[in-house]
């Protein structure tokens, strides 16, 4: 294993030295928002140190992976939001979640995914005016 040294003074992150191993599922405290089952230590080190050329080339395969989509679906389900313009509720999506997620994965992989329009509702404010709110479809969340 190679030694990785991370230095990010602009974020106030202390200099840390540890071995980067693919598949390691411990997440440093400043990356607590990161899903540990998807991001490896090597990937986090690359985020902090920068990637050669300044560009990521292979994140899309992480997005359309079924494991990633299932984790995202569980988070959407936990939030219990309203249905979007397609009127597919959380409960309805849940009844066919595996097929919806498989379809979503395939469309993302084949680069033919396109989100549907966002449902617009208005929330009343204290002063009598209204604030617009956009509600995306469950599958687009």
Description:
- It is built from 5 helices and 4 strands, in the order ββαααααββ.
- It is of the alpha+beta class and 141 residues long.
- The chain folds into 2 domains: 3-54, no CATH class; 60-140, no CATH class.
- The strands form 2 sheets. The chain has a two-stranded antiparallel ribbon with strand order 1-2. A two-stranded antiparallel sheet has the order 3-4.
- Helix 3 packs across helix 5.
- Mean pLDDT is 76; it is low at 1-25.
Work out the number of β strands: 4
Computed CA radius of gyration, to the nearest angstrom: 19 Å
Instruction: Please mark out the parts with pLDDT under 50 across 5 or more consecutive residues, or reply none.
Output: 1-25
How many domain regions?
A: 2
Give the helix level as a range of percent.
Answer: 25-40%
Largest sheet, order of strands side by side? 1-2
Kindly name the structural category: alpha+beta
Largest sheet: 2 strands, antiparallel
Q: Helical stretch count?
A: 5
Looking at the structure, what is the overall shape?
Answer: globular
- How much β-strand is present in the residues? 15-25%
Oligomer: single chain
- Rounded mean pLDDT score: 76
Instruction: Encode the helix/strand succession as letters.
Output: EEHHHHHEE
What distance lies between the first and last C-alpha atoms, to the nearest angstrom? 37 Å
């Amino acid at each position: 294993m190679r030694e990785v040294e991370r230095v990010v003074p602009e974020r106030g992150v202390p200099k840390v030295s540890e071995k980067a191993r693919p598949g390691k599922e411990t997440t440093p405290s400043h990356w607590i928002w990161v899903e540990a089952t998807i991001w490896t230590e090597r990937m986090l080190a690359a985020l902090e140190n920068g990637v050669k050329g300044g560009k990521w080339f292979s994140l899309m395969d992480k997005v359309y992976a079924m494991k990633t989509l299932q984790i995202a679906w569980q988070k959407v389900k936990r939030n219990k939001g309203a249905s979007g313009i397609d009127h597919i509720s959380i409960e309805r999506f849940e009844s066919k979640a595996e097929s919806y997620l498989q379809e979503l994965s395939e469309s993302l992989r084949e680069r033919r995914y396109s989100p549907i329009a966002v449902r617009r509702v208005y929330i009343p404010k204290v002063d009598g005016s209204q604030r617009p709110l956009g509600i995306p479809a469950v599958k687009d969340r």
